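Need Group 1 glycosyl transferase's 3D structure for a figure. Predict it.
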Amino acid sequence: MLKKVIRSYRQEGMRATLRKVKERLGHQASPQAQPEKIDLLHLPAMPQFDDIVKADYINFPYQKPKKISKKYLNIAWLTQPVGPGGGGHTTISRFVKYLQEQGHNVSFYLYHVNTINQSAKEAQDIFKRSYGIDVEVRELAEFKNQDVVFATSWDTAYAAFNLKEKNLHKFYFVQDFEPVFYGLGSRYKLAEATYKFGFYGITAGRWLTQKVSEYGMQADYFDFGADVEIYRTKTEVIKKKKICFYARAHTERRGFEIGVMALKIFKEKHPDYEIEFFGQDMSNYDIPFEFIDRGILNKEELAQVYHESVACLVLSLTNVSLLPLELLVAGCVPVMNDGDNNRMVLGETEDILYTEAYPVALAQQLCNAVERKDVNQHAEQMSQKYQGASWQESYQKVEEIIKREVIDG
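Structure prediction for Group 1 glycosyl transferase:
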């Protein structure tokens, strides 16, 4: 049991691990045991209760302060407790590192959602070990002397709204449309309300800028990039009889069940092809065909999977994943669900095989990818075509947006 808990924490982070432990303990509980009384103040995946109650954007809206005369800014990021391997924290860390390199003083402030206990020191160690950034992390109660604060999720937006420091410019780093993470209920409406707080939004891609603007939110966006030096093909491309799948069973928006059904259909038509799952520990899942469980991989390991695979099934039902551009750089065909959420960010390209988010349709596109007669040549052409897809322009654009909104002159 302990070894499984440790493995889950390393590969999936604290939130998923706590959920698994809770589920396991629930199965082991005695039938005669009395159910615990539900505490409204400690519902899972909620901001602190008092922060929601205090955030009166209707009667006391956030007023953007005057611009300031400074070259280098003190920039704070509010964060939930952090685990290794999170896509959201990976993207944030990219921009934090760049802002540090430009001379800005950047720090994180830890906001405790009700289900997770983590110290600032633990979070700081994870940022350094798993995300490669040396950044100070403090408790939110210690917040002071900042010019800019970024909310990074809907729960931290409540904490940011309630910060009363004078002349504090408030931004919202929006990486997905978070209301749809939940059913239509309290969490949906509370997440939705944060787009009305008056913060300036910086969104991951153009689709999200359009979404938040529906709530009257001013926003700008950055384009996605890829670590070209890691993912590009470096030798002659020789594909194996292999495809891969971005498998995130605990993340609803990744369409895990649809993906598994599509892969079952594909496997029946192409039994000689290996299928590798990555993105999550799948050791406890009963999958109806043979597959290789790769779990959480680092960038170099991902590059190897991409280089060997003809195609990758990667589903994004809300904002697009970071993976498709990485796959294109690596010469691996992305098979994806169609939709504005994907096309508005990635653009119109014949290199991505879009189709309906339905098992039969996705399986057919996987078959189309592997049945090409020029698989290796096509992979090399794709990789060459996307060699310029770096993050550098996005880093520069985000700094320019901050300076434009905050600095006078």
